[in-house]
Every structure is written in C-alpha cells, then in structure tokens.
Amino acid sequence: MQPHNGHGADPKGPEQIDASLGYEPTDVKVTGIVVFLISMGIFVGVVGLVAYGLGKVMDAHMAKVDGPPNRWTKTVNVRELGNLPSSPALQNKMADLVQDFPTPRLQIDDGNQDLVNLHQREDLLLSNYSWVDATHTKVRIPIERAMELIAQRGLPVAPAVQRQQVMMGDSVPTVTMPLTNGFARTSYELDQEQQQAAEFK
Q: What is the mean pLDDT of residues 80-108?
C-alpha cells in the first residue's frame, strides 16, 4: 500500500486517465503543431529564396557567356507571322524527302527487307558484267567466270615468309579454314523464295 498524502495522485507517477467519461477531459496541445507549421513555412521560404538566387546567378552567368541579346537571340512571337502560304514546290520537295529519306531510316520490318535488297545488289554485282569506273577502263566480271580463270591460270605465289626459329615451349600457330564462305540466306529470304516458288507453280 502506497501512503496517501491527501493531495491526490503522486505527481511523479504515471498520469491516471479516467476513461469513464468517454472523451478527452482536456484540450489538445496545439503548441507543437503551431511550431511545426511555422518552421515549415520558414523552411519553404528559405528554400524558395535560395532557388531564386541560384536562378539569378545562372542567368547572369549565361548572359555573360552568350553576350548581350540581339535580334538573332531574342524570342520571336510566331503568332505574329501568321500562317505561311502553301507552296506546291515545297510540298513536292517534302514528299520527295519522305519517299527517299536519307539513311539511317527507321526499319519497320526488323531489317529483313533491307537485307534482301542488300543481297539482291550483291547478286547483281557477283553474277553480271559491270564497269568499275566511269571511264570504262576496268570491268567487273561474274564470280563464276573469275573462278574459272583462277582455276586455269592459278594465283600468284607470294614469297615465302621468313619465320624466326620457334623458342622452347612455343608452338607454330595453325589457321583453321572456315566451314563456310560466310554468306548464307536468312530465314526471311528463304521464306520469300518458297512463297515465290509456290506462286509460280
């Protein structure tokens, strides 16, 4: 039993809350809320002033680097210009640019058609006669004919390369010939050839 001194609960002990009333018997302490709101307002104001000052400093630095404003750097109100008159020549030029836009162009079929066009151009060069230069002094021959000529005449023999003696523990490197010539049709091209063959039947 704690001694009762006649002055109510012990002030050093925990505060006894009477829950029988069903509501708070005292008002909410708004001091902390007011202090927080004032601190937040001061913080926002300081941050705004700092940001404004940094913007002024950066604008002054850019003006110093770019020089004073002139007629080429001033902002133009495009609404004062109005609508430009239609020009058929300009529209035709724009249509030509759209039809033959310079590379690199956006590929709409994963590049399959571009690869087909590349192989078709290569086939034309490899299978037909064509001039190499504009003066018509050199001609490009088909690859089949070039292989026949090489088989008949042979290739010039390169002089033997003088190799240094292999040091102890080293080995002479060997070159393995590739299994293919590096050229193969893509699956897209093979599908195109099968569709063309089925249409001709």
A: 71
Mean pLDDT of the chain: 77
What's this model's pTM, rounded to 2 decimal places? 0.31
Q: How far apart are CA 130 and CA 143, in angstroms?
A: 12
Do residues 10 and 2 lie in contact, with contact meaning Cβ atoms separated by under 8 Å? yes
Residues 93 and 102: beta-carbon distance below 8 Å:
no
3-state helix, strand, coil in the chain (%, to 5): 45, 0, 50
Three-state DSSP string of 50-119 = HHHHHHHHHHHHHHHHHCCCCCCCCCCCHHHCCCCCCCHHHHHHHHHHHHCCCCCCCCCCCCHHHHHHHH
Average pLDDT over residues 183-189: 76
Provide the β-strand partners of residue 131: 139
Tokens, residue 22: 């069903």
Instruction: Please state the separation of Cα 115 from the chain's center in Å.
Output: 23
The pLDDT-based confidence of 1 (bands split at 50, 70, 90) is: very low
Amino acid at site 138? K
Q: Are 142 and 129 spatial neighbours (Cβ–Cβ below 8 Å)?
A: yes
- Cα 105 to Cα 111: distance, rounded to the nearest angstrom: 10
Assess contact for 129 and 140: CB atoms under 8 A.
yes
Task: From residue 112, give the alpha-carbon distance in Å to each of 120, 125, 184, 197.
Answer: 12, 20, 14, 19
